[in-house]
């Protein structure tokens, strides 16, 4: 049985609205913008979100001098049960927890991801 469902990709950037409008136009998806967050969403529900990051530096792909900046958000029904399950799989809970409807973890390689209730 899956621990989570329907991942959402979150991309760090300096201007979430501008990036959302770009991808919204490219994909013909609905754009929703707030002050430091934006998202584009398909009619069938798939979503890409954009998060403002101060001092953003773009990746230097394909080199790893500045690696790509993004993380996964996954939807769960029960944060406590999902937390226990991902910890059992080898994740670690990040000490900085900035919200109440989501929790931040690090995968076994150190990449951040969030368990979210919505």
From TrEMBL:
Q: Which organism is it from?
A: Plantactinospora solaniradicis
InterPro entries in alphabetical order: Glyas_Bleomycin-R_OHBP_Dase, Glyoxalase_6
Looking up PANTHER family in the UniProt record yields: CONSERVED PROTEIN, HYPOTHETICAL FUSION PROTEIN
Query: For the Glyoxalase-like domain, which residue ranges apply?
Result: 8-116
| UniProt protein name | VOC family protein
> Top-down, what is the taxonomic lineage of the species of origin?
Bacteria, Bacillati, Actinomycetota, Actinomycetes, Micromonosporales
């Amino acid at each position: 049985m899956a621990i989570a469902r329907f991942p959402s990709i979150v991309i760090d950037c300096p201007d979430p609205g501008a990036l959302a409008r770009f991808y919204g136009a490219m994909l013909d998806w609905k754009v929703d913008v707030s002050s430091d967050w934006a998202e584009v969403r398909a009619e069938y529900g798939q979503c890409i979100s954009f998060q403002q990051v101060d001092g953003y530096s773009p990746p230097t792909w394909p080199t790893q001098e500045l690696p790509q900046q993004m993380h996964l958000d996954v939807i769960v029904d029960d944060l406590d049960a999902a937390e226990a399950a991902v910890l059992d799989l080898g994740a670690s809970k990040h000490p900085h927890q900035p919200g109440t409807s989501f929790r931040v973890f690090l995968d076994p390689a150190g990449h951040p991801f969030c368990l979210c209730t919505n």
